[in-house]
């Protein structure tokens, strides 16, 4: 979907997030980079990945990167408390969790010893 939009509207603005402005072409470059990162951590097609973050450019890039890599998106509501997020994340059987730094305090209850990427 985004790839075909980039072919048609490459230099048109696709994402505006505060001062960040990305064209469709720039967005696709970042999505491909994210897809490569998912492959780099060993994500296989069909693996589930949770994203617990507010709507922002990074969320868009991560979500489309995940889908491009063949993963399955498990969005976690930003209004959830840590226990609610933990329940969704645990029951969905995710292989990885992408979390906004502000929410990362709530990560430890469901992934003890989970390595942190910054």
Automatic annotation (TrEMBL):
Q: Where is the AMP-dependent synthetase/ligase domain?
A: 5-100
User: Which InterPro entries does the record associate with it?
Assistant: AMP-dep_synth/lig_dom (IPR000873), ATP-dep_AMP-bd_enzyme (IPR050237)
Q: Which domain of life is it from?
A: Bacteria
- Pfam families recorded for this chain? AMP-binding (PF00501)
The record's section on SUPFAM superfamilies has: Acetyl-CoA synthetase-like (SSF56801)
The protein's matches in PANTHER family, at most eight in alphabetical order, are given as: AMP-DEPENDENT SYNTHETASE AND LIGASE, LONG-CHAIN-FATTY-ACID--COA LIGASE
Instruction: State the name under which the record lists this protein.
Output: AMP-binding enzyme family protein
Instruction: Output the lineage of the source organism.
Output: Bacteria, Bacillati, Actinomycetota, Actinomycetes, Mycobacteriales
């Amino acid at each position: 979907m985004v790839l075909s939009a980039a072919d048609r509207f490459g230099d048109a603005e696709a994402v505006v997030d505060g001062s960040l402005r990305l064209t469709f072409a720039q967005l696709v470059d970042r999505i491909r980079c994210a897809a490569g990162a998912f492959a780099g951590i060993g994500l296989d097609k069909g693996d589930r990945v949770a994203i617990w973050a507010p709507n922002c450019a990074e969320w868009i890039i991560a979500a489309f990167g995940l889908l491009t890599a063949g993963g399955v998106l498990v969005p976690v509501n930003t209004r959830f408390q840590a226990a609610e997020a933990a329940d969704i994340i645990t029951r969905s059987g995710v292989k990885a969790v992408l979390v906004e730094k502000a929410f990362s305090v709530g990560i430890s209850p469901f992934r003890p010893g989970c390595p942190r990427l910054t």
